[in-house]
Specification:
The structure holds 2 protein chains of 2 kinds. Chain A is mainly α. Chain A has 2 domains: 69 residues; 275 residues, no CATH class. Helix content of chain A is 68%, strand content 2%. Chain A contains 13 helices and 2 strands, in the order H-H-H-E-E-H-H-H-H-H-H-H-H-H-H. By secondary structure, chain B is mainly alpha-helical. In chain B, helix 2 runs antiparallel to helix 3. The longest helix of chain B has 33 residues. In chain B, 20% of the residues are buried. Classes of the chains: A mainly alpha, B mainly alpha. At the A-B interface, helix 1, helix 3, helix 5, helix 10 and helix 13 of A face helix 1, helix 2 and helix 3 of B.
Chain lengths: 362, 125
């Protein structure tokens, strides 16, 4: 009988873990909504949500219940199927990107990750590209001029910043010599302390990537697709009820994922500061190390998420020509030049016979 | 290995299940009273003028076309970036070649970008 139980467990443990991760993401998204409102209230010297639950922490759940009891209005002249497809696409893409990001791991034991694929970075870039479709389809299917303009603006903006983002990610690959996210994180471990993290080895790439991540999530100062003063609600003008709620959910999950990817590529992901020293001196390992690494990843991600919220409530919105100028005339040339500079640095390390910043030194 | 991707597909399926459940829940719980006014597109309370399926600025097409060119060239760089370390370890001609070829490639890329900017293909007014 125990053998049967074991085989059942082996069949269901992976889907159970994935189910758990999805639920954690949902809770994280609602906490982020709460965090955004509290931080914005703090910045604007208001009270913020303080009625539902202790200090208003149940406010996002109350919002979800309100949205789910509202009517779902589909414009008569719009395309009903595509109108439903767009928010589904957004939620699915936002949720599944997290599958390739390792939560913890060591070079000996391998990563703690849902899907340990060898092309993780390409997969993340591909996933962010697909979410362009969600917004564009939402704008088109509503048959409203505001929605259409919002969708068009969004697609043009997202594809423009994707180029600079891809180029910045490429400079990380040069150091790691691999597209697997686990290898990229482990390649930042080589100096023993936190100076091996890519933010120190590749600061220009970090700045470009963070700006592009902000633009990809359509958040202020890059929130042209939903500029209230010009476009009412932008691409989700004609959405109501839970479909609107799904866009909302996808936006905050995307914010979390963008912070997580930035932390993973440039801030050492799950690596603890000075991890190899801790392991060497205190014999840190096993379950304790894994737990600490998960805490480190969440702390780094939360830091970036806070910065993104902070930026949103501090900076004014770009004009559209400024947005395009920044993306094409500044960030793209800078990140292409950065690729070449990083390639030269890696070459110099190898030629000098020193410690090349790559897995070869591990 | 294709089996590495199985957990990803399970994740996509579960997320799809979540999204469809949310849609279905609303259909059960929410009211449904369609109307002519309610189904018309929002235009600040006025009667909508014309359809939204109209022509829009050619700039958007232009950006999309330029994007395709640069994105494909960027994807070409990824295999190089992955194997750059191995070229360097091989040393000598291989290392120099890997650097020179990509320098040329990036140079052509930047010349194209400068041409684009000079021609005003990326100017929004």
């Amino acid at each position: 009988m125990p053998e049967l139980l074991v085989s059942i467990w082996e069949a269901v443990d992976l889907p159970l873990a994935i189910f758990l991760v999805i639920n954690l993401l949902l809770v994280t998204a609602s906490l982020l909504v709460y965090a955004e409102r509290v931080v914005s209230a703090f910045i604007q010297e208001r009270s913020g949500p303080n009625r539902v639950g202790p200090r208003g922490i149940l406010q996002p759940f109350a919002d979800v219940f309100k949205l789910i009891f509202k009517e779902d209005i589909v414009p008569t002249a719009g395309n009903g199927f595509v109108h439903s497809l767009a928010p589904v696409l957004m939620v699915v893409i936002a949720m599944s990107t997290v599958a390739v990001i390792p939560f913890a791991g060591t070079a000996e034991a391998g990563p703690v990750v849902i899907a340990d694929v060898s092309v993780g970075l390409l997969l993340i870039l591909a996933m962010t590209s697909i979410s362009v479709y969600g917004i564009t389809l939402a704008g088109w299917s509503s048959n409203s001029k505001y929605s259409l303009l919002g969708g068009l603006r969004s697609s043009a903006q997202m594809i423009s910043y994707e180029l600079a983002m891809g180029a910045a990610a490429l400079s990380v690959v040069l150091y790691a010599g691999s597209l697997s996210i686990f290898d990229i994180v482990e390649s930042q471990n080589h100096l023993g302390s936190f100076f091996g993290w890519n933010i120190f080895r590749n600061p220009v790439g970090f700045v470009v990537f963070a700006v592009c991540a902000l633009a990809e999530t359509n958040r202020a100062p890059f929130d042209l697709p939903e500029a209230e003063q010009e476009l009412v609600g932008g691409y989700h003008t004609e959405y109501s009820g839970m479909k609107f709620g799904m866009f909302f959910l996808a936006e905050y999950v995307n914010l979390w994922i963008a912070s997580m990817v930035t932390a993973t590529l440039f801030l050492g992901g799950y690596l603890l500061p000075g991890q190899s020293l801790l392991v060497e001196w205190f014999g840190l390992g096993g379950l304790l190390l894994t737990a600490l690494q998960m805490v480190a990843l969440v702390a780094k991600t939360a830091f970036f998420a806070f910065c993104f919220i902070w930026i949103r409530w501090t900076l004014p919105r770009f004009k559209y020509d400024q947005l395009m100028t920044l993306g094409w005339k500044y960030l793209l040339p800078i990140s292409i030049a950065n690729i070449f500079v990083i390639a030269l640095i890696v070459t110099a390390y190898v030629l000098l016979g020193g410690d090349p910043p790559s897995p070869f030194s591990l | 290995m294709i089996t590495d991707f199985v957990p990803l597909f399970i994740m996509i399926l579960l997320a799809l299940g979540l999204a469809l459940t949310l849609l279905k829940l609303q259909q059960w719980l929410g009211p449904y009273q369609p109307g002519k006014i309610k189904g018309s597109p929002y235009e600040s309370g006025q009667d909508p003028v014309g359809s939204a399926r109209e022509r829009y600025s050619i700039k958007f097409y232009l950006v999309a076309m330029i994007f395709i060119v640069f994105d494909v060239e960027l994807v070409f760089l990824y295999p190089w970036a992955v194997s750059f370390g191995e070229f360097l370890q091989a040393g000598g001609g291989a290392a120099l070649g890997a650097l020179a070829v990509v320098g040329l490639f990036l140079f052509i890329l930047v010349v194209g970008l400068i041409y684009d900017i000079k021609k005003g293909g990326l100017d929004w007014d």
